[in-house]
From TrEMBL:
This is SigE family RNA polymerase sigma factor. GO terms for biological process: DNA-templated transcription initiation. It holds the Pfam family Sigma70_r2. It comes from the Bacteria. CDD domains: Sigma70_r4. The keyword Transcription applies. Belongs to the sigma-70 factor family. ECF subfamily. It comes from Nocardioides marmotae. Keywords: DNA-binding, Sigma factor, Transcription, Transcription regulation. GO terms for molecular function: DNA binding; sigma factor activity. Residues 15-76 form the RNA polymerase sigma-70 region domain. Residues 99-151 form the RNA polymerase sigma factor 70 region 4 type domain. InterPro entries: RNA_pol_sigma-70-like (IPR039425), RNA_pol_sigma-70_dom (IPR014284), RNA_pol_sigma-E_actinobac (IPR014325), RNA_pol_sigma70_r2 (IPR007627), RNA_pol_sigma70_r4_t2 (IPR013249), RNA_pol_sigma_r2 (IPR013325), RNA_pol_sigma_r3/r4-like (IPR013324), WH-like_DNA-bd_sf (IPR036388).
Length: 160
């Protein structure tokens, strides 16, 4: 049986991937940083229990999505929308494509955006996504279908 990672080990190995997921959820580099930090603080308080359960990634992702949803419900006043991409982004796609994808994701309601990020960016199964979000697999499927329909119709993702 493999030992669970310490909090520091987990953050060192998964921090960048968590930030990228948070950036796709929030659309803003600073808010992504805040989201990851807030979720990790929530997890750090219960790290021994989380690590013992063996589902560290799922728990941290769920903390991120829950925190993101809470911020959206409260209409977080710290939001500063920006069209700029973060300096640390190292994707292969060109700048225009990245902006278009982010703009298209911003059209989705928070639940659909979370499902799309978890399913297609974090590469989770429908079952894993349902577990992380605390919803049924059927809801994951319907949210995915609705989100993909919206994205297909988005002016930002039209082929030139």
């Amino acid at each position: 049986m493999e030992a669970s990672p310490t909090f520091e080990e987990y953050v060192a190995t998964r921090g960048r991937a968590l930030w990228r997921s948070a950036w796709l959820l929030t659309g803003d580099a600073q808010r992504a940083e805040d989201l990851v930090q807030t979720a990790l603080v929530k997890c750090w308080r219960r790290w021994d229990k989380i690590a013992a359960d063996g589902s560290v990634d799922g728990y941290v992702r769920r903390a991120m999505v829950t925190t993101f949803t809470d911020w959206r419900r409260r209409r977080w006043e710290g939001e500063v929308p920006t069209a700029e991409l973060p300096a640390g982004w190292n994707g292969d796609a060109d700048l225009a494509v990245r902006r278009d994808v982010l703009s298209a994701l911003a059209l989705l309601p928070r639940g659909q955006r979370a499902v799309i990020v978890l399913r297609f960016y974090d590469d989770l199964t429908e079952s894993q996504t349902a577990h992380v979000l605390g919803i049924s697999v059927g809801t994951v499927k319907s949210q995915t279908a609705r989100a993909l329909k919206t994205l297909r119709m988005s002016e930002f993702l039209e082929e030139s």
